[in-house]
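ok new one. same drill as before - structure tokens go in, u give me an amino acid for every spot. 293 of them this time. try not to just spam alanines like last time pls lmao
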């Protein structure tokens, strides 16, 4: 069932559709109004929001719509909103996604390859990746810019922290490019699980790629700090990320929109000599060197 609603209708309609037996209710942007970084603890919706509800294929939808009409009228005093009911084609959605995730090259040496595909260049540095439920495949500009920086930067023998590691793609890439060790830090247990499994796929031992929740992470500074998160968390984490970067060490920040770059630059300039921003589409990567006092 598809509806177009206002944000104010979302909560009541979601509750009602779930009561009517929907197995899933999702919202989508119907007006090309991106929301890149909502305030913490909020879930804003778009001015024109599309609502999609799914039922099992054998559901009596005439009975469902009758229930929705009666309950909406009884609770809110208005008819249930106009909607369209259709049968979805039965697909293996996981397989469909897998078929569209192709090997990608970043820089001169590095390829990110889905774990279920054969690497196109067996002589390259191939990172076998299955992101699972974690962010980070290289398809997003923020990740792509960090991967290209790693490919172009001498990391041999260096220690690396990947803060907000997601799938582990950046930390594991650093290790395959010759880093001595890398530490992954994330708040999401599913991300840490994906990072651990991706390391195993690439023959990375746990002693070279330890993984931590932020509160458990060691405090020894690293040679390279990479944090691909979002602008506001980066600003809040600035003192911590600075303390985890050794004097003379390198900083890489991404997940920043171009209009947010100056605020992040200003914050990190307290500890780092910052370079000119690198941009791709509307996203920015910031790099710098920590000052030696």
């Amino acid at each position: 069932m598809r509806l177009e609603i206002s944000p104010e209708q979302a909560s009541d309609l979601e509750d009602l559709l779930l009561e009517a037996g929907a197995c899933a209710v999702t919202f989508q942007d119907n007006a090309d109004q991106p929301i890149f970084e909502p305030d913490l603890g909020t879930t804003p919706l778009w001015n024109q929001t599309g609502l999609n509800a799914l039922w099992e294929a054998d559901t009596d939808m005439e009975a469902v719509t009758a229930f929705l009409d009666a309950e909406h009228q009884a609770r809110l005093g208005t008819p249930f909103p106009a909607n369209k009911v259709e049968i979805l084609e039965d697909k293996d959605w996981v397989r469909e996604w897998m078929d569209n995730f192709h090997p990608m090259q970043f820089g001169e040496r590095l390829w990110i390859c889905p774990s279920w595909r054969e690497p196109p260049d067996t002589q390259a540095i191939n990172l076998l990746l299955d992101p699972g439920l974690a962010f980070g495949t290289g398809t997003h500009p923020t990740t792509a810019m960090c991967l290209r920086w790693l490919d172009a930067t001498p990391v041999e023998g260096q220690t690396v922290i990947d803060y907000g590691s997601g799938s582990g793609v950046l930390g594991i890439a650093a290790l395959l490019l010759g880093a001595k060790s890398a530490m992954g830090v994330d708040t999401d247990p599913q991300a840490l699980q994906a990072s651990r499994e991706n390391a195993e796929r690439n023959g990375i031992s746990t002693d070279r790629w330890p993984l931590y929740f932020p509160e458990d992470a060691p405090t020894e500074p690293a040679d390279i700090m990479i944090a691909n998160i979002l602008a506001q968390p980066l600003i809040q984490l600035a003192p911590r990320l600075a303390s985890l970067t050794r004097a003379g060490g390198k900083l890489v920040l991404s997940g920043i929109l171009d209009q947010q770059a100056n605020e992040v630059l200003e914050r990190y300039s307290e500890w780092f000599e910052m370079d000119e921003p690198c941009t791709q589409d509307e996203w920015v990567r910031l790099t710098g060197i920590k000052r030696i006092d």
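The helical segments are 10-19, 61-76, 93-99, 141-152, 169-176, 189-201, 231-243, 261-268. and btw The CA atoms of residues 61 and 85 lie 8 Å apart.
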